[in-house]
Amino acid sequence: MNWKLTLAYDGTDFHGWQVQPDRPTVQGALADAIERVTGERVLPQGSGRTDAGVHALGQVASFRLNAPIPPANLHRALNRTLPPAIRVMGAEHAAEDFHARHSVSAKTYEYRIFRGEICSPWLARYVYALNWPLHVERMLAAVPLVVGEHDFTSFAATDPDLTTRQAEAADSGDDSDDGPETDGPGNVRRIFASELSLRETDEGELLVYRVRGSGFLHHMVRNLVGTFLDVGRGHFAAEDIPVILEKRSRAEAGATAPARGLFLDSVEY
Amino acid sequence: MNWKLTLAYDGTDFHGWQVQPDRPTVQGALADAIERVTGERVLPQGSGRTDAGVHALGQVASFRLNAPIPPANLHRALNRTLPPAIRVMGAEHAAEDFHARHSVSAKTYEYRIFRGEICSPWLARYVYALNWPLHVERMLAAVPLVVGEHDFTSFAATDPDLTTRQAEAADSGDDSDDGPETDGPGNVRRIFASELSLRETDEGELLVYRVRGSGFLHHMVRNLVGTFLDVGRGHFAAEDIPVILEKRSRAEAGATAPARGLFLDSVEY
């Protein structure tokens, strides 16, 4: 039987999604929990990697089990077994050809920036706290300029171990931060929506960036956020965004924003 | 110059308030930050200990510094130096005779219980997640029965290293979970208010217990909560609370509720 799980996790204390020897990872913790519950050792496939410190509200994982288990029972048993930092939000039987990564049609990421003076201890793990002045109007002008199909080389991680091209060559499909490699060749991706807004929470006001796309290169969302923040600080103008895209060079864009503000919000199939 | 700081902290990753060799503690982290900022080594006195895993919204600490520093500067510099899990919420000059523990007139604690089916990863560090059925009306009847002056021996930790009596004998005054020993002899304390309520949050509904008193014995709030939960489960009736108090024996009351749901809310002087 093929399974689809939807997962929320606090990435702070994990070395990312992908299983690694002797380090706590989300994929590893999930595989252990599935084995403890069912007796079957499987490697759940995620919709894509998330890096160390990146959180998820709706990561999706798929795997096959031989034992017939009602979804509600697997759901409850996994939540009793997993560490509290990982929660199964939904568990369902999936079509035989469903694959959490290969079947993706779109993903949405969210990046949270705290603008207040004192970032509370309960918020600190989940936001980038940043209280220098920002020209938010300029950021609002810059953010939509990445919508559409573009070559995002300027916003891709330069670490050669982690480039999408290598991942594709190896057919692991799992070496980009978050993604299916079905949306175009090389570093071309399609962004459907790119929005910045203010959100009131119990802990104060957040500046929230949300981006929905066909797929994302490794570090792409964090590099976009770092660049939009450079627009807010006046290092770039909004009109520089198309120029940066055009140059296809990582050196042209801004710094990588910290992992702790990033959430994989949801995955569409 | 005498100083008064108000502190919020996430206690999850600290071995409690009180400084210990080779273990991260809140008092130790604060002493280190003060030294790094001012060059002066002091041991800040808290309003009382909090145990490992217990949080604070408004812990108060006092200490003396020779260097003349404007409060706003010390405030900002400490928040730049402290780990994000500890925040200085207020910094002010205090009267010469102010002492964070000896001067306490009342303290308020809050205990948070999550009743939903899935406790999100962002809430898990800060609540006791408990989804068995509870007779909340019975708990509402039990909770006010501890108001007034009582001998709380039945609700005090039995660990002999941590009893208030020993702490008083040693004149450390710092060996109770939270408190000044000025409110009465032995294990007598005065409770001004004891209330249970429901609170809506971004992450779902919480059952919140708040208690305000002259002082508290070690583990007293967690033992009260554990006992009120036993009332909710039907192990005790509300009317058993006065009987349990009367017996002055830890064995009569319920279990100690987990540290992670407990917050030192505020301290009055």
Automatic annotation (TrEMBL), chains A, B:
Gene3D superfamilies: Pseudouridine synthase I, catalytic domain, C-terminal subdomain, Pseudouridine synthase I, catalytic domain, N-terminal subdomain. Substrate binds at residue 109. Residues 8-101, 145-269 form the Pseudouridine synthase I TruA alpha/beta domain. GO terms for biological process: tRNA pseudouridine synthesis. Residues 171-181 have a biased composition (Acidic residues). The active site is at residue 51. GO terms for molecular function: RNA binding; tRNA pseudouridine(38-40) synthase activity. Residues 158-187 are annotated as: Disordered. It catalyses: uridine(38/39/40) in tRNA = pseudouridine(38/39/40) in tRNA. Its EC number is 5.4.99.12. Keywords: Isomerase, tRNA processing. HAMAP family: TruA. Homodimer. Formation of pseudouridine at positions 38, 39 and 40 in the anticodon stem and loop of transfer RNAs. Belongs to the tRNA pseudouridine synthase TruA family. This is tRNA pseudouridine synthase A. It comes from Silvibacterium bohemicum.
